[in-house]
Give the backbone structure.
Amino acid sequence: MKIYFIYLTFKSLREAKFAIYNGKVSVDGVKRKSLYHGIGLMDVVELDGIKDVYRLVPKNGILLQPIIINDDEKTKKIVQVKSKTTIKNGKTQIGFHDGRSLIDETNISVGDACVLQVPEQKIIDVIKLEKGTQVLITRGVNAGKTGMIDEVKEGTFILPKRVNITLDDRQIEIPADLIMPIGKDKPVIQIR
């Protein structure tokens, strides 16, 4: 996915490389000049000379599909909390799904999601993984579908944490690591 998305916008790989090496590609508000910088879930991609701004989301069973978003949403990104540790001087370090880490004292748990302001990496809002939260399925056959959490089942030594979700007219139970909270009643950012 590294260069593939950029390559689709240009006529040849040579043009794509030229654009990247000359700083015409921005990911999450930062110009990237390396072919090897990966892009992933919820990343915001801008190309100089093109007025559209893209966000990568799962859609129709495809793991990463670019969608055009409004210009005012290009500084917002949803990131899911994957780790939370206490470091030196009792401070809390939060690790996110995209590899970012942040030292912050926000009350948050693993599995919750944050709305980040990029590139400043400032937490704007927290979306809890709880009953009544709307979620996006990020992997599997239902990737890209959204649903509402009916119940969160704590994991055991053998079974992972599981979530009951209502998708359209049916109810499914999936592992909690396959979903990302996106809002209470509706998504807090554009994902379609």
User: Anything to note?
Assistant: Residues 134-183 form a domain with the SH3 type barrels. fold (CATH 2.30.30).
